[in-house]
Amino acid sequence: MVQTFQGEYLHKFDDKGRIIVPQIFREKLGMEFQISVDIDDECLTVYTMNEWDKVHEDINSKPRFDRETKEMKRRFYAHSSKCNVDKQGRIRIPDNLREKANIKGKEVYFVGAGEIAEIWDKDKWENIR
Q1: DSSP per residue over 75-95, as a string?
Q2: Is residue 2 situated within a structural domain?
Q3: Domain for residue 39, yes or no?
Q4: Distances (CA, A) of 20 to 9, 11, 23, 46, 74
Q5: Which of the ends of the chain has fewer CB neighbours closer than 10 A, N or C?
């Protein structure tokens, strides 16, 4: 069964750069999941491990020595990270991913986007929603 992420949830980073993942999303994501900078939008994309495997298979089915594919793979994998949820339901998003996704403030929205979730800078999300 495909997990469906819905809704929007505002959360704050603590002083150590950790943030609580909304409970409803944690139930679907589990204790380990992947985060990547969205290639088209300035946000982070959150994948269950099953969904990550699908994306990984799709990416690696493309021609290995094609210049465009190589560049896309570099951008995608260089700006991705595995996250583990701690006992308090928090994760630490690497600074380079937050910077690349243009997440500047202490507050972000976790947004449901079907089979994935997204993490948006508060101001940016409020401007586009």
Answers
A1: HHHHTEEEEE--TTSEEE--H
A2: no
A3: yes
A4: 10, 7, 8, 14, 29
A5: N
